[in-house]
């Protein structure tokens, strides 16, 4: 079946603008994760959804970042008033149940966000 | 929070040689996963090893886990140029299952 997909693959925006990044998880996966990866670093956890609810948003850096998953499938990561420091690759992953790490997380190709 | 620390940070070998990468972590885990990443894009899952397992194989990959030393290793045998990538270990001991990655090992396999 299809893997995790993310759109757009690249996004260039100006400082102060609003952006939305979309993630389509693998069908049937209840758990969905967002990570952010800066150059030379490993992915950094942002937020985790179990179904429609955010089970853990402790990785969101500040209140400019927000994510939703209204129907328990597609998720959108929203960034307000973008800053140059937000430039990174934003990765989405999904897993079947998300129960305490017993499930493999499958990653999408990422969205490369560049804030000018 | 849990985090895997990979060692070495960079490794350069010739095609055909074996590559060994190590990972250390701090607290108890349920499992540990290894991922590969090419060119800073999506991560490809390689192997998941559970805390009650000591060794696992997948093709040319062999992963070991020593929970007493809180360490894991990834061995790639008979390396190929296509194995050139960054490799990350991701231990998971948290209740929510989110993975905490280190900086990875950057492997370069020269033809």
Explain how this protein is built.
In chain A, a hairpin with a 6-residue loop joins strand 7 and strand 8. Chain A is mostly beta strands. In chain A, strands 2, 4, 5, 6, 9, 10 and 11 form a seven-stranded mixed beta sheet that branches. Chain A is globular, with a radius of gyration of 13 Å. Chain A is about 0% helix and about 45% strand. Chain A has no helices and eleven strands. Chain A has strands at about 5, 10-15, 20-25, 30-35, 45-50, 55, 65-70, 75-80, 90-95, 105, 110-115. Chain B has about 110 residues and is mostly beta strands. The model of chain B has no long low-confidence stretch (mean pLDDT about 90). In chain B, strands 1-3-8-7-6 form a five-stranded antiparallel beta sheet, with no helix packed on it. A five-stranded mixed beta sheet of chain B has the order 2-10-9-4-5, with no helix packed on it. The termini of chain B are far apart. The relative contact order of chain B is 0.35. At the A-B interface, strand 4, strand 5, strand 9 and strand 10 of A face strand 4 and strand 5 of B.
Features:
heterodimer; A: 116 residues; mainly beta; seven-stranded mixed sheet; four-stranded antiparallel sheet; 47% strand; globular; B: 111 residues; five-stranded antiparallel sheet; five-stranded mixed sheet; 53% strand
The largest pleated sheet of chain B is described as:
5 strands, antiparallel
Find the count of extended strands of chain B (DSSP E, 2+ residues).
10
**C-alpha end-to-end distance of chain A:** 37 Å
Largest interface, counted by CB within 8 Å of the partner chain's CB: A-B, 33 and 27 residues
Secondary-structure element series of chain A:
EEEEEEEEEEE
Number of helical regions of chain A: 0
| Chain oligomer state | heterodimer
The overall strand count of chain A is 11
- Distance between termini of chain B? 39 Å
What ranges of chain A have pLDDT less than 50 throughout 5 or more consecutive residues?
none
Strand order of the largest sheet of chain B: 1-3-8-7-6
Along the chain, the helix and strand elements of chain B come as: EEEEEEEEEE
Q: Helical proportion of chain B?
A: under 10%
- The share of residues in extended strands of chain B comes to over 45%
Briefly note the structural class of the backbone of chain A.
mainly beta
Shape of chain A: globular
**What level of helicity do the residues of chain A show?**
under 10%
- What summary fits the major beta sheet of chain A? 7 strands, mixed
Strand content of chain A: over 45%
Summed up, the helix count of chain B is: 0
